[in-house]
């Protein structure tokens, strides 16, 4: 797939590698995600956030329970909800708008886990601010996790050597 602002770029080109020919396509499916030559991921992120919301609402009562520790609730978030949201994130190239949507989702779940805070002066309950959430939740933010997952693939492919086609694609010498 050729990704370019120019719609006619690479229109007739194909790639030959190891006696195989690959034709140019407008879209293809990789890791359960459809990649397009326009590289628009807004719909993909909407679908992942919708799945994450469904997962979040299925464990909502557990996350707001006072019987479980905060560490256990954070483990539930990290092992059940976060993988659903970040499935296929290795192929995403995020804009600031999508990064913000992912952070909003994370903060909403963390607010459920940590609950409200009582003001000492007014003795009223209030929601935790984003900075307070970041102080309480010591793990990297969701965007950093996504970017680190994206970096795993080259680290996995680099030791393969010239005999493997995927390595030649990585170093741009197919």
Name a few traits of the molecule.
two-stranded antiparallel sheet, mainly alpha, elongated, 174 residues
Question: Secondary-structure blueprint of this entry?
Answer:
Blueprint: E1 15-17, E2 20-22, E3 27-30, E4 33-36, H1 42-58, H2 60-63, H3 70-85, H4 96-114, E5 117-118, E6 125-126, H5 130-136, H6 142-157, H7 165-170
Antiparallel strand pairs: 1-2, 3-4, 5-6
Average pLDDT confidence is 82
In helices, the fraction of residues equals: 40-55%
Category from helices, strands and their pairing: mainly alpha
Which regions have little confidence, pLDDT < 50, spanning 5+ residues?
none
User: What's the domain count?
Assistant: 2
Rg from alpha-carbon coordinates: 21 Å
Question: Would you give an account of this structure?
Answer:
49% of the residues lie in helices and 10% in strands. The radius of gyration is 21 Å and the shape is elongated. The protein has helices at residues 42-58, 60-63, 70-85, 96-114, 130-136, 142-157, 165-170; strands spanning 15-17, 20-22, 27-30, 33-36, 117-118, 125-126. The strands form three sheets. Strands 1-2 form a two-stranded antiparallel sheet. A two-stranded antiparallel ribbon has the order 3-4. A two-stranded antiparallel sheet has the order 5-6. The longest helix is centred in the middle third of the chain and has 19 residues, at 96-114. With 174 residues, it is mainly alpha-helical. The chain contains seven helices and six strands.
